[in-house]
Amino acid sequence: MSGDSLTLSQHPDSLVDDWSDDKEAFHVPWGKVMMWIFLVSDTFIFSSFLIGYMNVRRTTTEPWPYPSEVFALELFGNNVPLILIAIMTFILITSSGTMALAVRYAHFKDKKKIFILMCATAAFGASFVGMQAFEWTKLISEGVRPWENPWGAPQFGSVFFMITGFHGLHVSCGVIYLLVVATKVLKGHYDVKGDYSIVEITGLYWHFVDLVWVFIFAFFYLW
Description:
Radius of gyration: 23 Å
Shape: elongated
Strand order of the largest sheet: 1-2
Helix content: over 70%
Structural class: mainly alpha
CATH architecture: Up-down Bundle
CATH topology: Four Helix Bundle (Hemerythrin (Met), subunit A)
C-alpha cells in the first residue's frame, strides 16, 4: 500500500497525462476499447431483433413461408433455392479473409498491401450490398411488403426487411469506413505515430458484421 502511495506521489499527473496524450492504458489502445464497447452494444440490438423474430414466428397463426420457395432464383429455366444467398455468404466470408490479411500486414506496416487488401474487402462488401438490393427488388416485385406476404404470414416481410436492412446498413457503413482508413494508410496518415492499430480496429468491426450475418443466414434462410 505504501509503495503504491509512493508511486502515485512521485507521478501525481501520470493518469491525467495518459488521457490527455491519448496513450495506451492497460496496454490497449483507446480506440480498440471503444470499438469493443460499441460492438457489445450492437450485439444486444441484433440479439433483440433475432429473439423478436423467433417470437413472432413461433406465435403467428398463419404458416411461415419456406425459404426454398421465397429465395429461389431462376437459372437456366430452373428455380435454384438459396443460390444467391449462398453466393452472398461466400463473398462475406471471403472478405473476412482479406481483412485478416490486411491486419497481418499492418504489423509489418506494409502500406501498399494494407491498402490493396482493405480495398478488396470493401469491394466484397459492396458486392454483398448490391446482391442484397437485388434480393429485395425480387421479393418486392413478387409482392412481399412489411405488411403482407404472398406465401403466408404477413409478419415475414416486416421482420425480414428490418433485420436484413439493419445488417445491410452496417455493411454499407463498413465499406465507407474501410475505404477511408485504407486511403489514410496509403497517404501515410498514421506514419507520424507509427501506430497501425486502426487497421485492427476496423477489422474488429468487419468481422463482427460477418459474424452477425452467419446468425441471420441460419435463422432466416435455413430454418
